[in-house]
Every structure is written in structure tokens, then in C-alpha cells.
């Protein structure tokens, strides 16, 4: 009944995307100070568990049940309640999108996206937010930001009906999370000690390598079957990340007179985030251009953020937010139906309409993610303080809130 090759491939891709959340914990944990390693890592691992619970109960249904075309969703913005608790789905249920894999596999694959998206935001407010506030934020943000955009773009909602494309999450994942991070920074405020240095660059490198590895499942798996588009998405991912890495390295080397490993790692993540919306829709020759734009564009965004003194501690906005914006705009430029017949032709092929739709969609996602995140944090702050006390921040969240330390006392 099912295509065993595509089903096996998608199970592997799902596992790779799951690995990205612990990888993000390593990446952020290495960048944090010694007193705040566990505080940032627990946020990713809690999302791994709690987001799964939410997805099982209602998240999948809100994202992937009903459609605007059938008039069975909520105004094209949110799905319905028909598949809550995965009601009506059995091991023999086929994924309606292609009929080649079990719907269970699709449920699991998309669940991994719901897990990692809010985790991306946490790097912006490292060592400043209380765990209670974070847990509430993790819950509410998915209902008000992630689920609506997932449905609107991927679940048959209003943006999908309009013709907006997003292969693996430039709009749904990176733009919403990146601009949510910026809103978080502006609401929570700057750290007491903004000159905090990474506690373990090797840990950052391990996390970065695992993220790159997992990203093949993230992007290539978004084709949801094995074919030529899968291979194109896979190779586009690697090429764009590599060109972005080199662009960031050279720019920083010229400016600071030293080639830096943190810069190399950050550049690769910028390239991966930027190629994400494009991966299965654009020709291979465009991947180096996209990568170079990612490396230069995200680097400049981070420098501008520093100039504005926005304390986005781990550059979530500059890398993921701006990466998602650049990638979505370039999708509007380079998309080709010769590469993916289910896609569209972009600006260079004479289709201004598609370019305009992508531009409007990414603007909407960025503004919506920023505004709703700021509002969510404002409301949470009325219930419980979002930011920890200055003394807790100085002492470190690891011991003050969690009663644990990443390293033995002798290592501090």
C-alpha cells in the first residue's frame, strides 16, 4: 500500500529533524555563560516533550485539518478540531498529500518542526527569563503564532490558497521565530552583563555540526517522498550553507583581521536558514547566490543589531529572522517550475505576481510574529514576572532556578 522507500526515508528525516532540537541545545548551551548553560538547554528539551503533548492533543488538528477551499477551517487561519488526539488516523491511513507514506509519519515529521520553532527563540533572551514564564510562553506562542502560520501556508489555509510557497519553513519557522526573538529582546531588555563570552566553543561546534546534519532531513524531507526534487533540495541545502559560511568568514576576516570559528559556524547556520524556503523550488545554480546573500546579509544584520544595541544574545533575529526573509524573497526571484512543477516561476522567469506574493507573506509573518510575541509576553508579565531578578541573573539561572550546575565547582 505504501511506498517503502519513501516511508523509510521519511522516518530517517523525521529522526534527523528531532536531533536538531538537542543540537540547538548544544549550540546555545556552548554560547551561554557557565552559569546559564542548563537554563538555556532545558528550554529546548522541555519543548521536545511539551510541544509533542500539545501536538498530539490539538496541534496537528489545528494545523492540518480542514481547508479554506472546503470551508472546513476557521477563516483560512486555523484548522478545526476533527483530528484532536489524532482522532480517525490509523497505522493504515495514507497521507493525503501523496498517498505514499502513512499519515502517522507525516504527523511525526511535522511535529518536529513545531518542537524546534519556539526553541529557536530562546537564544535571544538567554539568562534573563524565568522558567515559569517560558513554559507559559512556549504554550501560548504555538497556539497564537506557529499553528496559524503552519495552517495558512502548509495546511490549506489562506496563504496557500493565494499561492504562497515555503518549501521547508522560511516563513513558518524562521521568520516567525526570528522576529519573535526581536520582540522578546525589546520586551525583556538587555542583560546586566552584555559582555558575556561563550563557555565552550567546541560545544557550539558540535551543536552546529549536528544542526547541519539534521537540516538535510529538514529540507530534503519536506518533499515528503524520494524523487529528483528531494535530491535537488538536499544539494541546494549543502551548497548554500557552504557559500554562506565562506562569505561570513571572509567578511569577518577582512573586518577583524582574524578568521573566527564562531563566525564560520554562524555563517553556516545563516545559509541553512536562508535556503530553507527555497530548497525544493529553485535550480542548483541559484544556491551559491542564495548562500552568498545569506552570509553577507545576515552578517550585516547582526552588525546593525549591535549598533542599535539590541541585546539579542545569540543573534536569533539576525540569523534566523533575516535569513528567513532573504530566503523567501529570493524564492520569489529564483523559483522555477522546470525544477518543481508544483511550484511557481519566479521574478527572473517573468512572474512578478509570485514575487509579490512572497514579499507580502514574509512581511506579514515578520510583523505578526513580532506583534503577537510582544503581546504574549506583556500578558504573561501580568500573571508572573517574565524577567528574573538582577540578583538571579548575576548568580546564574542554572543554580538559582534549577538547583543544578553544568560543571563541578572546581571547573568554575
Can you walk me through this structure?
Helix 6 (170-188) packs antiparallel against helix 11 (316-334) and helix 8 packs across helix 10. The N and C termini lie far apart (58 Å). The chain has one domain: Ammonium transporter fold, CATH 1.10.3430.10. 57% of the residues are buried. The chain is 66% helix and 0% strand. The protein is mainly alpha-helical and 412 residues long.
Whole-number total of structural domains: 1
CATH topology grouping: Ammonium transporter fold
Radius of gyration: 20 Å
**pLDDT below 50 for ≥5 consecutive residues: which ranges?**
none
Q: How many strands? A: 0
The shape is: globular
Class of secondary structure makeup? mainly alpha
Number of helices: 14
Distance between the termini: 58 Å
Task: Report the portion of residues in β strands.
Answer: under 5%
Give the SSE order as H and E letters: HHHHHHHHHHHHHH
- Oligomer description: single chain
What is the average per-residue confidence, as pLDDT, rounded to a whole number? Answer: 96
Largest sheet: none
If classified by CATH, what would the architecture be? Orthogonal Bundle
CATH class value:
Mainly Alpha
Q: Helicity range of the residues?
A: 55-70%
CATH superfamily: Ammonium transporter AmtB like domains
Amino acid at each position: 500500500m505504501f511506498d517503502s522507500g519513501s516511508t523509510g526515508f521519511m522516518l530517517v528525516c523525521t529522526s534527523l529533524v528531532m536531533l536538531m532540537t538537542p543540537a540547538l541545545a548544544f549550540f546555545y548551551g556552548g554560547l551561554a555563560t557557565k552559569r546559564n548553560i542548563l537554563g538555556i538547554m532545558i528550554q529546548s528539551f522541555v519543548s521536545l516533550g511539551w510541544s509533542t503533548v500539545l501536538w498530539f492533543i490539538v496541534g496537528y488538528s489545528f494545523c492540518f485539518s480542514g481547508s479554506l477551499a472546503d470551508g472546513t477551517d476557521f477563516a483560512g487561519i486555523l484548522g478545526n478540531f476533527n483530528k484532536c488526539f489524532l482522532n480517525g488516523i490509523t497505522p493504515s491511513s495514507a497521507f493525503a498529500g501523496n498517498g505514499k507514506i502513512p499519515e502517522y509519519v507525516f504527523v511525526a515529521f511535522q511535529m518536529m518542526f513545531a518542537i524546534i520553532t519556539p526553541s529557536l527563540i530562546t537564544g535571544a533572551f538567554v539568562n534573563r527569563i524565568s522558567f515559569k514564564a517560558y513554559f507559559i510562553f512556549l504554550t501560548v506562542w504555538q497556539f497564537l503564532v506557529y499553528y496559524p502560520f503552519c495552517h495558512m501556508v502548509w495546511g490549506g489555509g489562506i496563504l496557500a490558497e493565494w499561492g504562497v510557497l515555503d518549501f521547508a519553513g522560511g516563513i513558518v519557522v524562521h521568520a516567525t521565530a526570528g522576529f519573535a526573538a526581536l520582540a522578546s529582546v525589546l520586551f525583556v531588555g538587555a542583560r546586566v552583563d552584555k559582555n558575556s563570552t561563550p563557555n565552550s566553543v567546541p560545544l557550539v561546534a558540535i551543536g552546529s555540526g549536528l544542526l547541519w546534519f539534521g537540516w538535510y532531513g529538514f529540507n530534503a524531507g519536506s518533499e515528503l517522498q524520494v524523487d529528483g526534487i528531494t535530491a535537488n533540495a538536499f544539494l541546494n541545502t549543502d551548497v548554500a550553507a557552504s557559500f554562506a559560511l565562506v562569505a561570513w568568514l571572509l567578511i569577518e576576516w577582512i573586518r577583524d583581521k582574524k578568521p573566527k570559528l564562531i563566525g564560520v559556524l554562524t555563517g553556516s547556520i545563516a545559509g541553512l536558514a536562508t535556503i530553507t524556503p527555497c530548497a525544493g523550488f529553485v535550480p542548483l545554480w541559484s544556491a551559491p547566490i542564495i548562500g552568498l546573500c545569506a552570509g553577507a546579509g545576515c552578517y550585516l544584520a547582526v552588525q546593525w543589531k549591535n549598533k542599535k544595541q539590541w541585546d539579542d544574545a545569540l543573534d536569533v533575529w539576525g540569523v534566523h529572522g533575516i535569513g528567513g526573509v532573504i530566503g523567501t524573497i529570493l524564492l520569489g526571484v529564483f523559483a522555477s517550475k522546470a525544477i518543481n512543477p508544483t511550484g511557481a516561476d519566479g521574478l527572473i522567469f517573468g512572474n512578478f505576481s509570485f514575487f509579490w506574493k512572497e514579499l507580502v507573506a514574509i512581511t506579514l509573518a515578520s510583523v505578526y510574529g513580532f506583534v503577537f510575541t510582544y503581546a504574549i509576553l506583556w500578558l504573561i508579565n501580568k500573571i508572573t514576572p517574565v524577567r528574573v531578578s538582577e540578583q538571579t541573573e548575576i548568580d546564574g539561572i542554572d543554580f538559582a532556578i534549577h538547583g543544578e550546575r553544568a560543571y563541578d565547582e572546581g571547573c568554575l
